[in-house]
Amino acid sequence: MSSGEIAYPARGTMTGWITRHQGALSFHAWGLEFGACSSLRTLAALREENRGHFLADPASSGLHRAKAELREVFCPKSGTWRQTVLSQAVDVVSRALQTLRER
Predict the structure, then answer these.
(1) How far apart are CA 68 and CA 84, in angstroms?
(2) How many domains does the chain have?
(3) Which one, of 83, 93, 78, lies nearest residue 32 by Cα?
């Protein structure tokens, strides 16, 4: 992918708010994604939560389990995983700032 291309349109980000409220401000936005689980586990969790959302009794234990699994595949409770992701994110931001300083 070349500079200036958009990999995919992200929704729910701060860029829309900035664009609406800051008008002519020129900025670049980027996002980081950190894998937590296998694609198959993630897909299974998405399907199960979706099924439960539309078909299950809102108070059912199955729906609560499905929602908990979905949270876990996107943001694991593991302190090691969280610390690793935080460290990697800080490293990426530091390298980006260094690159900007060099330009």
Answers:
(1) 22
(2) 1
(3) 93
Residue 69 lies in a domain: yes
Separation in Å, CA 98 to CA 76, 85, 87: 30, 20, 16
25 vs 102: which has the higher pLDDT: 102
Give the structural domain span for 87: 34-102
The structure's pTM equals: 0.66
> Given phi > 0 = left and psi -120 to 50 = alpha, else beta, which region is 45?
alpha
Contacts of 18 (CB under 8 A, 6+ apart): 25, 27, 29
What pLDDT digit, counting tens, does each position of 29-85 carry? 777 888 889 999 999 999 999 999 999 999 999 999 999 999 999 999 999 999 999
Task: Give 64's Cβ-side CA count (13 Å radius).
Answer: 3
**Token code pair at residue 44:** 């299974």
Residue 52 lies in a domain: yes
